[in-house]
Design a protein that fits this description.
globular; 7-stranded antiparallel β-sheet; alpha+beta
Length: 235
Amino acid sequence: MISENNSIIFDIAIPAAIAFIAVVYYSWRAGKDRKRLLMLGYIATRWKMRFQRYDFSGTLSTINGSYYTLLGHSHFGSSVLTGRQRAIPLTIFDYRFELGAKINRSVVKKTVFIANTKYPNPSILFLRHKNILPIDRFAHFEIMDLEHLFTSFDIPVTVRTALKKYSVYSDQIDSAQTILTQDFLLALSKLGAVDVELMGDMVICWSDQVASRYRMVQLAARIVGCGSTINKASK
């Protein structure tokens, strides 16, 4: 009799526990998604930007061939904000892709900021704490010597220290040096722990997924600043 009662308890308790865990998990996910949508809505309202939950406008296609699009698989973009700041076209969106498969599978989540410049730029890649370039179009890029540029500018020690964390690559060294003005290097140093790429008329900032409203606004303003300094240098 006791054994039967225990069996009935387990038959009820286990499914109930699973159902409870599922409810808690999906409630947490829903709350997290809602918090993110509220943050994006705040940015869209403050800066009068257009918001799309999914990438209906083909934003991902504009960055095909950029650094992170060549890594991994199952690339996906969502929560796209588009507009203009200080006369600079600005796009912000969430981006994710997968590395590996099965038990070695991992998901990489990024927030991408794109500032469009007036004219196409030489291809330049700023990578933090990375020494190996992917194959494909980056295979023939050469590493640039920022120390050579530092000697030409009056750059504070703190800025030099921040910039030395980057490995800088380009396939057009001479043209790249015309873009890397003192103002641009100062703007770049303020971005913090991100990767930056110049491709065509875009300055692309790759950050780990931003969860803070303040950090979102800060990065957006600073990548726009990078675009503005390039426009000034191109005049």
